[in-house]
TrEMBL record:
Keywords: Gluconate utilization, NADP, Oxidoreductase, Pentose shunt. The keyword NADP applies. It catalyses: 6-phospho-D-gluconate + NADP(+) = D-ribulose 5-phosphate + CO2 + NADPH. GO terms for biological process: D-gluconate metabolic process; pentose-phosphate shunt. InterPro entries: 6-PGluconate_DH-like_C_sf, 6PGD_dom2, 6PGDH_C, 6PGDH_Gnd/GntZ, 6PGDH_NADP-bd, 6PGdom_BS, NAD(P)-bd_dom_sf, Pgluconate_DH. Its EC number is 1.1.1.44. It comes from Halocynthiibacter styelae. Homodimer. GO terms for molecular function: NADP binding; phosphogluconate dehydrogenase (decarboxylating) activity. This is 6-phosphogluconate dehydrogenase, decarboxylating.
Length: 468
């Protein structure tokens, strides 16, 4: 018996993906960095073990696969990927493909693709979203690499992916690092959306003294409407869950210190490198960073105690503001994707990205169908932010956001992502900005020159002679 595909790494995501592949009827060879876990996994797989071949070494794995071989890696991003590539590359034959399905930095994927191409091997960077549940029952899959390497993979990937009205939420999006870049930006948007939901929770908790369950039922009602999304759904559930040990709402016993593995930060770094600023994502990454500084925050609270006064937030305003902020976060994410696609000549189809995010992934939401339609129609200046379909929601939602953000600010309640969303929106609807002043300053102290509104060319201000 030979396998169509091999999978290395039987951690949470690897195991779930392996069972998903086996369940769809493909023969899959599996191995892990700890070969003793292979038997354990096969036993736990039950009837699905019929489609699984356990390999205890790299040689066994390669021998179990029918060429051209496809080898999926689900191991922690970084050195583990390089180590496996080094072990397997000499054993593989030209035309074989290594698929990195972890959350890799796309720069590494580009490097690995180039190195392996020189050895006649394909390297595919594949973003997989949806957590453990998604990996087991249908994730969203973002593939990048040589287009021809997707041909043998496609039937497997489409079979295991989530479906939106029958359409597999998986596709080849571009060469080399395109798939991992799209996944990185997906995670960046995920950070922003999570932060915005957390900010609403914070306003209700600290501004109104609302109980978690009440916020949970509010979120549940929002999830039934235009704010419908996976993150809204789980937030509603989280807020209504009680801790087993204490019986308290579980959110009340969880430490306010957020972790991060890097994808949100990479989105921000890449955005800045591309001359963009995904400010809502940046706010979310920053908020996680500040959250880690827990002791200092306690000192700060003692030194600058907040106003204990309560305030109220209109529920419709909150919902409208959250929807507009979510549109803004997506618009910023897609702008980073557009800039990267141009820079690296990936030719990413933005409408298709939105389509494959409609199911399976963590940021799946009712908005994504409208976003893919928007990308397939004429967008003013090519900007998602200006899509006619979102005009009313943005007009209404940013008005609501002004009321929410100003109340929060007056009350001393931090809303970094909402504030960032509003600042960007207002900047993007101001034809005459204020960087004429910055240009003048640059010219004044550094003779950097500026462009004029009324004449072509580069110019200096009247201070030029005085300064010389
Ligand atoms: C997904 C998630 C997944 C994972 C991230 C979260 O799309 O399924 O984004 O990739 O949960 O690693 O990243 P942080 O640990 O940085 O929050």
């Amino acid at each position: 018996r030979e396998a169509n595909v091999g999978l290395i790494g039987l951690g949470t995501m690897g195991s779930a993906l392996a069972l998903n592949i086996a369940e769809k009827g493909f023969n899959l060879a599996v191995t892990t960095l700890h070969p003793d876990r292979v038997d354990e996994f096969l036993t736990g797989a039950g009837e699905l073990a019929e489609n699984l071949i356990g390999a205890k070494s790299a040689e066994e794995m390669v021998a179990a696969l029918t060429p051209p071989r496809s080898l999926i890696l689900l191991v922690p991003a970084g050195p583990a990927v390089d180590a496996i590539v080094e072990t397997y590359a000499p054993l593989l034959s030209p035309g074989d493909t290594i698929i990195d399905a972890g959350n890799a930095n796309f720069h590494n994927t580009r490097k690995r693709a180039e190195e392996l191409a020189a050895r006649g091997l394909n390297f595919v960077g594949m973003g997989v979203s949806g957590g453990e549940e998604g990996a087991r029952n249908g994730p969203s899959i973002m593939v990048g690499g040589a287009k021809e390497s997707y041909v043998p993979l496609r039937p497997v990937i489409e079979a295991i992916a989530a479906k939106f009205e029958g359409d597999p939420c998986a596709d080849w999006l571009g060469p080399d690092g395109a798939g991992h870049f799209v996944k990185t930006v997906h995670n960046g948007i995920e950070y922003a959306d999570m932060q915005m939901i957390a900010e609403v929770y914070g306003l209700l908790r600290d501004g109104e003294g609302a109980a978690p369950t009440d916020v949970g039922t509010l979120f549940e009602s929002w999830n039934a409407g235009k704010l419908n999304s996976f993150l809204m759904e789980i937030s509603a559930e989280i807020l209504q869950a009680n801790d087993d040990a204490t019986g308290k709402p579980v959110v009340d016993v969880i430490m306010d210190k957020a972790g991060q593995k890097g994808t949100g930060r990479w989105t921000v770094i890449e955005a800045l490198s591309l001359g963009q600023s995904a400010s809502t994502i940046e706010a979310a990454v920053g908020a996680r960073g500040w959250s880690a500084d827990r002791e200092a925050r306690a000192t700060g609270e003692n030194l600058f105690p907040g106003d204990a006064g309560k305030c109220e937030f209109d529920r419709t305003d909150l919902a409208d503001a959250l929807l507009a902020a979510r549109i803004i976060a997506y618009a910023q994410g897609f702008q980073v994707l557009t800039a990267a696609s141009e820079e690296y000549e990936w030719g990413i189809d933005m409408a298709r990205v939105a389509e494959i995010w409609r199911a399976g992934c963590i940021i799946r939401s009712a908005l994504l169908d409208d976003i893919s339609d928007a990308f397939r129609s004429d967008l003013p200046d090519g900007r998602l932010l200006f899509a006619p379909a979102f005009h009313d929601a943005l007009t209404k939602g940013t008005d609501a956001m002004r009321r929410i953000v100003s109340t929060a600010i007056l009350q001393g309640l931090p809303v970094p992502a909402f504030s960032a969303a509003l600042a960007w929106f207002d900047s993007m609807r101001q034809a005459r900005g204020t960087t004429n002043m910055v240009q003048a300053q640059r010219d004044f102290f550094g003779a950097h020159s500026f462009e004029r509104l009324d004449q072509p060319g580069s110019h200096h201000g009247p201070w030029a002679q005085k300064n010389s």
